[in-house]
UniProtKB/TrEMBL annotation:
Database matches in Pfam families: GFO_IDH_MocA, GFO_IDH_MocA_C3
Example of a GO MF term: nucleotide binding
Gfo/Idh/MocA-like oxidoreductase N-terminal domain span: 27-144
Name under which the protein is recorded: Predicted dehydrogenase
Gene3D superfamilies (UniProt xref): Dihydrodipicolinate Reductase, domain 2, NAD(P)-binding Rossmann-like Domain
InterPro entries (UniProt xref): Gfo/Idh/MocA-like_OxRdtase_N, Gfo/Idh/MocA_Oxidoreductases, GFO_IDH_MocA-like_dom, NAD(P)-bd_dom_sf
Naturally occurring in which organism (per UniProt): Flagellimonas flava
Domain GFO/IDH/MocA-like oxidoreductase as annotated: residue spans: 157-283
Length: 368
C-alpha cells in the first residue's frame, strides 16, 4: 500500500511542473480575408501553437462564406483592425488583405508592440517598405514576410550545396514562377478586385511573382544588392488583365554573377522552380521536393543525381509555427533570412527598379 502511494506521489510530482510549463497558444489576429493565401491559416490543423482570436473583414458576405467553410463564429470578425485589437489583444497579426494595406497594418500594430507577418511581397514600393521597417525597429517588433517558396526543402538544400561549393562558384541563377493567370484559375472576385489593381497590388505578374526570385537570389547572395536591374514587361492577356502587366523578365547583374527572373501569368501550368549554375555543375530545384544535381563531364556531358526531399522539420515547415517560435524566442533566424526585413528591403529595391526599367526601356543602376 505504501509503495503504491509513493509511486502515485512520484508521478504527481513529475507531472505538476509539466502542466505549469505548457505555454498558451500564440494569440493571432488576421487582418483581411481577401488574399486567398488566408486559407493557409484558416484551414490549418490545430497544432496547439497558435490561436486565431479575431479577424478583420468589412466584407461580411466573404467572412460568412469562410465561416461556413471553416466553422468559425462570426463573433470573431470585426470591421476594423483597431476594433479587433482592442477586443482580442492579439500578440501577432497576419496580413491577408491588399499589399498596399501592409503599411497600415504595421502602422497600427507596431506602436502597440504587436508583431506582424505579411504575405509576399513585403509592400507595394520601397518607400512603403522602408516605413514599415522603421516602425518595426522603433517599436521592437518582429516583421516577417511569408513566401510559399520559403517552405520548399529543395531551395534550402540547394543553398546548402551551393555554400558547400558542390557546383563551384556561382555564375547564373534562373527563377521561374507563376501560372496561367488569376482570371483562369477560378479565384474569388474579392481577390481579383485588387490583384489586378496597379495601386493596391503595385503591379501585375512582375510584383505577384517577381518577388519570389528577388527574395531567393538575395538570400543566395547573403543579402547582396545587385549592380543593375533590367526588365521587360508585356500584357499578353489584355482581356483578363487590362490594368497591369502579366508577363515579365528581370535581369540582375552582380560583380561575378547574373540572375534571370521570369514571373508570368502566362505559363501553361503553375510553377515555382529555380536553376543554379556554378563553374562545375548545376542544381535544379524542380519543385518543392525534387532536386537534381548535375556535375559537368567533358564538353556537354554530365552525371546527374536526383534527390526527393522530405519536408523540413518543425517549426520550419509552417509559417505560423515559425511566427510563434520567433515571437516566443524559441528560435533566432539567421541574418538575411528569407523572411527578414533586410532581405525584403532589397527585394523591394529590385522590384521598384524593375518597374522603372520596364517603363523607361533602359537598365537601372542601383546606387552603392
Amino acid at each position: 500500500m505504501l509503495r503504491t502511494v509513493l509511486v502515485f506521489l512520484f508521478c504527481f510530482i513529475l507531472n505538476v511542473p509539466l502542466s505549469f510549463s505548457q505555454e498558451k497558444p500564440l494569440r493571432i489576429g488576421i487582418a483581411g480575408l481577401t488574399h486567398t493565401h488566408v486559407h493557409w491559416i484558416l484551414g490549418r490543423e490545430d497544432l496547439g501553437d497558435v490561436e486565431v482570436v479575431g479577424m478583420v473583414e468589412p466584407n461580411r458576405d466573404l467572412a460568412q462564406r469562410y465561416a461556413n467553410q471553416y466553422g468559425y463564429s462570426m463573433d470573431l470578425v470585426y470591421y476594423t483592425l483597431d476594433e479587433m485589437i482592442a477586443a482580442t489583444q492579439p500578440e501577432a497579426v497576419t496580413a491577408f488583405g491588399t499589399i498596399y494595406n501592409h503599411l497600415e497594418v504595421v502602422e497600427t500594430c507596431a506602436p502597440k508592440g504587436i508583431h506582424v507577418m505579411v504575405e509576399k511581397p513585403m509592400a507595394v514600393s520601397l518607400d512603403h517598405a522602408k516605413k514599415m521597417a522603421a516602425l518595426a525597429q522603433k517599436h521592437n517588433i518582429h516583421l516577417l514576410t511569408n513566401y510559399e517558396t520559403t517552405w520548399y526543402p529543395t531551395n534550402h538544400k540547394a543553398k546548402e550545396l551551393l555554400d558547400q561549393g558542390k557546383v563551384g562558384d556561382l555564375r547564373k541563377v534562373i527563377v521561374r514562377d507563376g501560372h496561367r493567370g488569376p482570371a483562369k484559375l477560378g479565384i474569388n472576385q474579392e481577390f481579383l478586385d485588387w490583384l489586378f489593381d496597379p495601386v493596391e497590388n503595385g503591379g501585375g505578374a512582375i510584383m505577384d511573382f517577381g518577388c519570389y526570385g528577388a527574395n531567393l537570389m538575395t538570400w543566395l547572395r547573403n543579402g547582396e544588392r545587385p549592380n543593375t536591374v533590367t526588365a521587360v514587361t508585356q500584357q499578353l492577356q489584355a482581356e483578363n488583365n487590362p490594368k497591369v502587366d502579366d508577363d515579365a523578365t528581370i535581369i540582375l547583374t552582380y560583380d561575378d554573377a547574373q540572375a534571370i527572373l521570369e514571373p508570368s501569368w502566362n505559363w501553361p501550368m503553375g510553377r515555382k522552380d529555380m536553376e543554379i549554375y556554378g563553374l562545375t555543375g548545376a542544381l535544379y530545384a524542380d519543385n518543392r521536393n525534387t532536386l537534381r544535381i548535375r556535375m559537368a563531364k567533358g564538353y556537354d556531358g554530365y552525371d546527374e543525381e536526383t534527390m526527393v526531399l522530405k519536408e523540413r522539420p518543425a517549426p520550419h515547415n509552417d509559417p505560423f509555427s515559425v511566427l510563434e517560435a520567433v515571437v516566443r524566442n524559441k528560435i533566432q533566424l539567421p541574418p538575411n533570412n528569407l523572411y527578414s526585413i533586410e532581405n525584403n528591403l532589397v527585394v523591394m529595391e529590385i522590384l521598384d527598379a524593375a518597374r522603372k526599367s520596364a517603363k523607361k526601356g533602359k537598365t537601372i543602376t542601383l546606387k552603392k
